[in-house]
Amino acid sequence: MLEIKNLHVKLEEEDKVILRGVDLTVEAGKVHAIMGPNGSGKSTLSYVLSGRDGYEVTDGSATLLGQDILGMEPEERAAAGLFLAFQYPVEIPGVGNMTFLRSAVNAQRKARGEPEMSSTEFLKVIREKAKELEIDADMLKRPVNVGFSGGEKKRNEILQMAMLEPKMCILDETDSGLDVDAMKLVSDGVNALRDEGRGFLVITHYQRLLDHIQPDVVHIMSNGRIVKTGGPELALEVEKNGYADLKETA
What we know:
Elements: E1 2-11, E2 16-26, E3 31-35, H1 42-50, E4 55-64, E5 67-68, H2 74-80, E6 82-85, E7 92-96, H3 97-111, H4 119-132, H5 137-141, E8 143-144, H6 150-164, E9 168-172, H7 180-192, E10 199-203, H8 207-212, E11 217-222, E12 225-230, H9 232-241, H10 244-249
InterPro entries: AAA+_ATPase (IPR003593), ABC_transporter-like_ATP-bd (IPR003439), ABC_transporter-like_CS (IPR017871), FeS-cluster_ATPase_SufC (IPR010230), P-loop_NTPase (IPR027417)
Keywords: ATP-binding, Nucleotide-binding
Organism: Roseivivax isoporae LMG 25204
């Protein structure tokens, strides 16, 4: 589904190399987790895949369902089925949550040549999704993320993901700033979206998120490369022993 080959990336302004040859394949129906110390390149990978400005790809490729995504605009990547949940979701004052979501859903449907969702259909679907994620109806009426707690912002992103139904979901440290209850709610939302046609790339520092979102594969990143790959037990090893030995190996 998502295939990354020999990806090299640097910061445009600082001419600083961040990724030094990342190879990664995420299959449909699988959850891959990336762990690693600060500065290892985890978030940079998510930014580059989503099309964030400020990064230059100097070598390598990234394809989603066989399509080269590195040459696409961010909105084209979204229409192709890529979704990024941010570590710190932004507030959008003056834009209602419902308006934002319906515009996003219909923009993607239009880009794929599908008919737009009517107001009635959209309202029915979003109410069902919000109920499943235990999102209060009042949240849907408020401006996007304005005045939301950390947990509410993350749940709102999972609602966006549920409405957009992407093929490839990237979660960039989505557990950041969440208490145990909020993390479980967010994780339950993610788990509800797991199916054979969708892949997940979960970026995290800690094992605790992976207690709730059970990964199929765990990768350890250090100094811009994936230095070790294994099963869920690899995350437990890191939790117990830290990254020192793995960084030394890298």
